Amino acid sequence: MTTTQPRPASSTADDGLLARIRHADAAEQAFMILRAAFTVAPILFGADKFLHLMVDWDKYLAPALSGPLPFTPHQLMYAVGGVEIIAGLVVAIHPRLGGPIVVAWLAGIIVNLLLIPGFYDVAFRDFGLLLAAIALSRLATMYDPRPLLWFTSGR
User: How many whole angstroms separate alpha carbon 101 and alpha carbon 31?
Assistant: First the structure.
Protein backbone atom coordinates (compact mmCIF):
# COMPACT_ATOMS: atom_id res chain seq x y z
CA MET A 1 0.00 0.00 0.00
CA THR A 2 1.39 3.31 -1.07
CA THR A 3 0.81 6.43 0.93
CA THR A 4 1.29 9.87 -0.39
CA GLN A 5 2.92 12.51 1.67
CA PRO A 6 0.85 15.64 2.18
CA ARG A 7 2.18 18.58 0.31
CA PRO A 8 3.00 21.67 2.36
CA ALA A 9 0.28 24.27 2.21
CA SER A 10 1.26 26.83 -0.41
CA SER A 11 -0.49 28.30 -3.34
CA THR A 12 0.52 27.94 -6.96
CA ALA A 13 1.18 31.67 -7.10
CA ASP A 14 3.61 31.37 -4.20
CA ASP A 15 5.36 28.47 -5.88
CA GLY A 16 5.68 30.52 -9.07
CA LEU A 17 7.14 33.55 -7.32
CA LEU A 18 9.60 31.51 -5.26
CA ALA A 19 10.64 29.54 -8.34
CA ARG A 20 11.11 32.77 -10.29
CA ILE A 21 13.32 34.19 -7.53
CA ARG A 22 15.35 30.97 -7.27
CA HIS A 23 15.86 30.62 -11.01
CA ALA A 24 16.51 34.28 -11.80
CA ASP A 25 20.01 35.35 -12.77
CA ALA A 26 21.96 37.57 -10.39
CA ALA A 27 20.99 40.79 -12.18
CA GLU A 28 17.29 39.99 -12.00
CA GLN A 29 17.59 39.05 -8.33
CA ALA A 30 19.30 42.41 -7.71
CA PHE A 31 16.42 44.11 -9.55
CA MET A 32 13.89 42.28 -7.37
CA ILE A 33 15.73 43.26 -4.17
CA LEU A 34 16.03 46.91 -5.18
CA ARG A 35 12.41 47.05 -6.35
CA ALA A 36 11.22 45.65 -3.03
CA ALA A 37 13.46 48.01 -1.04
CA PHE A 38 12.41 51.12 -2.98
CA THR A 39 8.77 50.11 -2.65
CA VAL A 40 8.74 49.37 1.07
CA ALA A 41 11.12 52.06 2.39
CA PRO A 42 9.42 55.11 0.82
CA ILE A 43 5.99 53.85 1.86
CA LEU A 44 7.12 53.25 5.46
CA PHE A 45 9.04 56.51 5.74
CA GLY A 46 6.22 58.39 4.04
CA ALA A 47 3.66 56.97 6.44
CA ASP A 48 5.91 57.88 9.36
CA LYS A 49 5.84 61.52 8.28
CA PHE A 50 2.25 61.41 9.56
CA LEU A 51 2.89 59.23 12.63
CA HIS A 52 6.37 60.31 13.84
CA LEU A 53 7.04 56.87 15.34
CA MET A 54 10.59 56.45 13.99
CA VAL A 55 11.91 60.00 14.27
CA ASP A 56 10.88 63.65 14.39
CA TRP A 57 11.15 64.29 10.65
CA ASP A 58 10.72 68.05 10.98
CA LYS A 59 14.35 68.45 12.10
CA TYR A 60 15.51 67.17 8.69
CA LEU A 61 14.07 70.16 6.84
CA ALA A 62 16.59 72.93 6.19
CA PRO A 63 15.49 76.27 7.65
CA ALA A 64 16.72 77.97 4.47
CA LEU A 65 14.06 76.02 2.57
CA SER A 66 11.26 76.05 5.13
CA GLY A 67 11.64 79.69 6.23
CA PRO A 68 10.07 81.36 3.18
CA LEU A 69 7.18 78.88 2.98
CA PRO A 70 3.68 79.94 4.07
CA PHE A 71 3.29 76.82 6.25
CA THR A 72 5.15 75.07 9.04
CA PRO A 73 7.82 72.41 8.54
CA HIS A 74 5.44 69.92 10.14
CA GLN A 75 2.76 70.69 7.56
CA LEU A 76 5.31 70.34 4.77
CA MET A 77 6.28 66.92 6.11
CA TYR A 78 2.72 65.76 5.43
CA ALA A 79 3.20 66.64 1.76
CA VAL A 80 6.63 64.98 1.76
CA GLY A 81 5.08 61.84 3.25
CA GLY A 82 2.41 61.77 0.57
CA VAL A 83 4.98 62.11 -2.20
CA GLU A 84 7.10 59.32 -0.69
CA ILE A 85 4.13 56.97 -0.47
CA ILE A 86 3.24 57.70 -4.10
CA ALA A 87 6.87 57.17 -5.17
CA GLY A 88 6.94 53.77 -3.45
CA LEU A 89 3.69 52.74 -5.13
CA VAL A 90 4.99 53.83 -8.55
CA VAL A 91 8.15 51.73 -8.04
CA ALA A 92 5.95 48.74 -7.16
CA ILE A 93 3.69 49.16 -10.18
CA HIS A 94 6.12 50.49 -12.81
CA PRO A 95 9.76 50.45 -11.64
CA ARG A 96 11.04 51.82 -14.93
CA LEU A 97 9.13 55.04 -14.19
CA GLY A 98 9.45 54.88 -10.39
CA GLY A 99 13.24 54.52 -10.40
CA PRO A 100 13.95 57.95 -11.90
CA ILE A 101 11.32 59.50 -9.62
CA VAL A 102 13.12 58.10 -6.57
CA VAL A 103 16.49 59.26 -7.95
CA ALA A 104 15.18 62.81 -8.32
CA TRP A 105 13.54 62.71 -4.89
CA LEU A 106 16.76 61.51 -3.22
CA ALA A 107 18.74 64.22 -5.02
CA GLY A 108 16.39 66.81 -3.51
CA ILE A 109 16.75 65.25 -0.06
CA ILE A 110 20.55 65.36 -0.37
CA VAL A 111 20.54 69.05 -1.32
CA ASN A 112 18.23 69.77 1.62
CA LEU A 113 20.50 67.85 4.04
CA LEU A 114 23.63 69.60 2.80
CA LEU A 115 22.03 72.89 3.88
CA ILE A 116 21.82 71.68 7.51
CA PRO A 117 25.10 71.63 9.47
CA GLY A 118 25.63 68.30 11.17
CA PHE A 119 23.62 66.22 8.70
CA TYR A 120 26.36 65.57 6.16
CA ASP A 121 26.61 61.91 7.22
CA VAL A 122 22.91 61.42 6.48
CA ALA A 123 23.36 63.17 3.12
CA PHE A 124 26.23 60.80 2.31
CA ARG A 125 24.09 57.79 3.25
CA ASP A 126 21.32 59.10 1.03
CA PHE A 127 23.86 59.47 -1.79
CA GLY A 128 24.42 55.70 -1.47
CA LEU A 129 20.65 55.20 -1.71
CA LEU A 130 20.62 57.46 -4.79
CA LEU A 131 23.23 55.21 -6.44
CA ALA A 132 21.10 52.16 -5.61
CA ALA A 133 18.06 53.90 -7.14
CA ILE A 134 20.10 54.56 -10.29
CA ALA A 135 20.94 50.84 -10.37
CA LEU A 136 17.22 50.05 -10.04
CA SER A 137 16.49 52.39 -12.95
CA ARG A 138 19.13 50.75 -15.13
CA LEU A 139 17.98 47.21 -14.25
CA ALA A 140 14.36 48.19 -14.88
CA THR A 141 15.25 48.81 -18.53
CA MET A 142 15.87 45.05 -18.74
CA TYR A 143 13.21 43.65 -16.42
CA ASP A 144 10.28 46.07 -16.79
CA PRO A 145 9.32 45.68 -20.45
CA ARG A 146 6.98 48.69 -20.57
CA PRO A 147 8.31 51.93 -22.01
CA LEU A 148 9.17 54.63 -19.49
CA LEU A 149 6.08 56.61 -20.43
CA TRP A 150 3.70 53.90 -21.55
CA PHE A 151 1.10 56.40 -22.78
CA THR A 152 3.51 57.60 -25.49
CA SER A 153 3.99 54.16 -27.07
CA GLY A 154 2.44 53.52 -30.45
CA ARG A 155 2.70 57.13 -31.64
Answer: 16
57-111 pLDDT, tens digit each: 999 999 998 888 898 989 999 999 999 999 999 999 999 999 999 999 999 999 9
Q: Residue 7: its pLDDT value, please?
A: 45
Q: Can you tell me the mean pLDDT for 34-44?
A: 97
Using the predicted structure, report yes or no on whether residue 15 has a pLDDT greater than 70.
Answer: no
* pLDDT > 50? residue 128: yes
Contact (CB, 8 A) for 85 and 116: no
Q: Is 139 exposed, middle or buried (0-12, 13-18, 19+ CB in 10 A)?
A: buried
Q: Is the Cβ–Cβ distance between 79 and 87 less than 8 Å?
A: no
Closest CA to 50 of 61, 39, 58, 40: 58
Question: DSSP letter string over the chain?
Answer: ---PPPPPS--HHHHHHHHHHHHS-HHHHHHHHHHHHHHHHHHHHHHHHHH-SS--GGGGS-HHHHTTSSS-HHHHHHHHHHHHHHHHHHHHH-HHHHHHHHHHHHHHHHHHHHTSTT-HHHHHHHHHHHHHHHHHHHHHHHH--S-TTGGGTT-
